[in-house]
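F.,

This is the one I mentioned.
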């Protein structure tokens, strides 16, 4: 009984405390709302923390208008999408709150809201976005109180005058004027639906951002809800959906690097919520290099203007990433953010476009992971890849059309016959790349790209073999970030835009940690092999010429271009070990450019920027790949395309090489049997006949008839044996004599071998003195002039005879030191 009494007292005391707390809660003062928001303004800076890129509440405007000056369509649209029971509830909706409470209890956090319009008014006035249950209780209590002291009309008016529309725009009147150039009472039904749709996520649904399609979908949802609730007739809703609404040009005042800032805001709102971002007075220090950003914006604008005149390519974008940190240094999303006529606010660097041949390195990396080598040869010949078509491109099924067959060509219409993977990638040859994609697999190639940072390639069946030619859509940001994995020796560090976030008291909320997301996604040697190929000026000379625009003087740079077959996209993506740069050029509406490759359209601005960036970066070189041990590799993978049965001969005797045959005299030959790689590796492939037919035709035209095993020599090399090596002896200097160190000495030898000598190398203490090629094989020197000599020294000679047999002889040189 005593325990029950104690519990009762605690309960009554706790209940009383809660009731007392609730009774002290006051309706907030809405008059000072604007001033409070501005005083807690969040500011976004460049990487130095000194250059202000954007003040989220700079130039905040709010035009307060009465209920009668707000369109009835807008009032109804807001109620339809935000709070259908607005006129029936007393400030809260218990059903919605119960549903959200169950979700929140399940997650252990306050994730889901279920707020009424009244609660949203309170939330805005409280100027806090704390995810706490106590704050939610406070919001509910104040919403109930507000309903007692204000009419529904007054509450809705408050909401419509305070609701945020992104940036410095607050309230329906200000949004109407900024977006449509008309007052809130003058807007159309479609415009009202847009204004009701945006506040859910102002950055995401911004009419000036990259999600206009999603905004249109939400606007249509608002109209459907209005029809469903009887606010408008069905016919009016249909007409409103079809209405073309024109948004006025955006006025962003003093914003710097606007595409980057909008990208940062989208990230911050997604992670922390809009309220937190707008009310906590945060200092956001980003990764942006403002000096380089300014140069990038100038270069993109000037080159895009020239491209429009020359190539009908009206727009361009540029991204720079540090491969070692993943930090985004530059983001230019269009030629001019404020050029509304050309959709300048659209950020093309995060839009998904076809990359053309710029996708090829991911397929080649997959191949190198699987054991293919840069020396592996594929045939660049006219090849049909559709298995329901004949090798010459004729449909085999009655239901097919000729265009259903797939026989692609190279960018220049030429075919090169056998070509190594090294040269095929460096010169961007299409046919070998398509064959390689088939060999390594579409799914595996997509997985390689995914692990390196490419998102969105989730429908392999749609792309087919065109994937390697850029058949899938990717973003310039993802491509540049993924290429930086090659530059970072195969380690991926996800791209980042934030260095640190400080609250108004200087406390760190978020801090960049390079190691946090670092993951090895490629073997070192695969990354280094790609780097070696893409930076090989000699290998890419046939396509780009000796003095290419892609070359950066004094720098080692890997680069790949890409142009879509229909000339709608031009890409250049390249990197040094300390910066990766991607450039895209084309038209936002996907219209066709002049039929010029990326080297003409996108390369000039890519090159110009990198030359500027190089002035601020140390010169670094890529690490070289290790040479693969190919002793156990089948000939066809080693590049011996003539056949798959190999044998080694001694170049001098022409006989089969033995373990004694000098390495430099060994030559690998094959029994000539010219076939496709499928013939040797996948004889059951449905592609076999399609690949074999043009190869056999080519071999016949070039007189390459098959050989038999009889071409393999029967006898073994008999001139390279230990007993046939030179039999040399050092006859001077003598180990029995101590010589003055400054006396000129002569090293003399005697040879008793079967073959005459061709060269003798002379060494003292493993330091090479020189060589003699006869006819007299001796060498003279002064010991004191040789670094490192002492009182006792080793003299060694290495002799080679006329067939490259080798032997060594040694003696001791004593000096009187």
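My design for it:
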């Amino acid at each position: 009984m005593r325990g029950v009494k104690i519990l009762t007292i605690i309960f009554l005391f706790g209940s009383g405390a809660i009731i007392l707390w609730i009774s002290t809660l006051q309706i907030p003062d809405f008059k000072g709302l604007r001033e409070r928001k501005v005083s807690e303004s969040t500011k976004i800076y460049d990487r130095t923390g000194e250059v202000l890129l954007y003040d989220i509440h700079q130039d905040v405007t709010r035009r307060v208008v009465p209920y009668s000056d707000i369109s009835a369509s807008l009032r109804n649209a807001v109620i339809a999408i935000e709070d259908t029971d607005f006129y029936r509830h007393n400030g809260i909706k218990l059903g919605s709150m119960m549903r959200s409470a169950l979700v929140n209890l399940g997650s252990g956090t306050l994730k889901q809201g279920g707020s009424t319009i009244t609660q949203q008014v309170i939330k805005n006035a409280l100027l806090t976005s704390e995810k706490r249950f106590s704050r939610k209780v406070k919001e509910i209590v104040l919403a109930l109180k507000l309903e007692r002291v204000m009419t529904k009309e007054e509450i809705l008016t408050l909401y419509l005058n305070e609701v945020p529309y992104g940036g410095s725009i607050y309230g329906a009147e200000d949004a109407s004027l900024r977006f449509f150039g008309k007052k809130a009472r003058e807007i159309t039904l479609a415009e009202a639906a847009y204004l009701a749709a945006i506040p859910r996520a102002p950055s995401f649904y911004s009419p000036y951002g990259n999600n206009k399609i999603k905004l249109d979908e939400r606007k249509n949802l608002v109209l459907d809800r209005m029809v469903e609730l009887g606010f408008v007739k069905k016919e009016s809703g249909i007409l409103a959906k079809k209405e073309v609404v024109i948004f006025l040009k955006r006025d962003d005042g003093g914003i710097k690097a606007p595409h980057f800032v909008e990208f940062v805001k989208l990230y911050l709102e997604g992670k922390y919520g809009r309220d937190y971002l707008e009310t906590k007075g945060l200092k956001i220090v980003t990764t942006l290099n403002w000096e380089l950003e300014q140069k990038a914006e100038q270069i993109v604008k000037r080159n895009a203007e020239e491209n429009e005149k020359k190539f009908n390519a009206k727009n361009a974008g540029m991204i720079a990433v540090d491969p070692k940190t993943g930090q985004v240094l530059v983001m230019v999303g269009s030629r001019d953010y404020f050029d509304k006529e050309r959709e300048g606010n659209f950020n093309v660097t995060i839009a998904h476009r076809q990359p053309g041949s710029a996708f090829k390195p991911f397929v080649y990396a997959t191949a190198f992971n699987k054991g293919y080598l840069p020396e592996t040869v594929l045939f660049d010949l006219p090849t049909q890849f559709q298995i329901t078509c004949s090798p010459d491109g004729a449909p085999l099924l009655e239901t097919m059309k000729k265009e259903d067959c797939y026989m692609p060509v190279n960018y220049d219409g030429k075919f090169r016959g056998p070509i190594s993977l090294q040269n095929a990638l460096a010169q961007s040859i299409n046919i070998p790349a398509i064959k390689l994609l088939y060999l390594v697999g579409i799914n595996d190639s997509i997985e390689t790209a995914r692990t390196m940072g490419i998102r969105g390639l989730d429908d392999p069946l749609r792309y087919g073999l065109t994937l390697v030619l850029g058949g899938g859509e990717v973003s310039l940001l993802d491509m540049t970030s993924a290429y930086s994995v090659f530059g970072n020796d195969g380690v991926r560090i996800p791209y980042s835009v934030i260095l640190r976030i400080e609250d108004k008291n200087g406390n760190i909320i978020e801090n960049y940690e390079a190691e946090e997301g670092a993951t090895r996604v490629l073997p070192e040697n695969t990354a280094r092999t790609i780097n070696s190929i893409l930076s090989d000026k000699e290998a890419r000379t046939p396509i780009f010429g000796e003095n290419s625009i892609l070359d950066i003087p004094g720098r080692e740079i890997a680069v790949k271009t890409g142009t879509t077959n229909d000339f709608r996209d031009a890409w250049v993506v390249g990197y040094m070990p300390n910066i990766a740069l991607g450039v895209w050029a084309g038209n936002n509406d996907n219209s066709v450019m002049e039929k010029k490759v990326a080297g003409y359209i996108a390369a000039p601005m890519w090159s110009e920027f990198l030359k500027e960036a190089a002035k601020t970066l140390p010169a670094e070189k890529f690490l070289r790949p290790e040479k693969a041990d190919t002793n156990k590799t089948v000939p066809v993978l080693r590049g011996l395309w003539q056949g798959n049965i190999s044998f080694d001969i001694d170049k001098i005797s022409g006989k089969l090489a033995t373990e004694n045959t000098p390495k430099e005299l060994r030559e690998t030959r094959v029994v000539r049997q010219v076939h496709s790689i499928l013939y040797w590796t996948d004889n059951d492939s449905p592609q076999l006949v399609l690949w074999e037919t043009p190869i056999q035709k080519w071999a016949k035209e070039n007189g390459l008839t098959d050989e038999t095993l009889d071409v393999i020599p029967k006898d073994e090399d008999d001139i390279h044996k230990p007993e046939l090596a030179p039999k040399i002896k050092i006859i001077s200097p003598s180990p029995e004599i101590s010589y003055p160190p400054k006396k000129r000495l002569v090293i003399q030898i005697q040879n008793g071998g079967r073959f005459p000598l061709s060269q003798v190398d002379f060494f003292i203490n493993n330091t090479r003195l020189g060589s003699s090629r006869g006819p007299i094989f001796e060498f003279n020197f002064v010991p004191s002039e040789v670094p490192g000599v002492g009182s006792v020294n080793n003299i060694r000679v290495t002799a080679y005879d006329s067939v490259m047999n080798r032997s060594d002889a040694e003696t001791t040189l004593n000096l009187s030191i």
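Residues 8-21, 31-39, 101-113 have pLDDT under 50 and may be disordered.

Talk soon.
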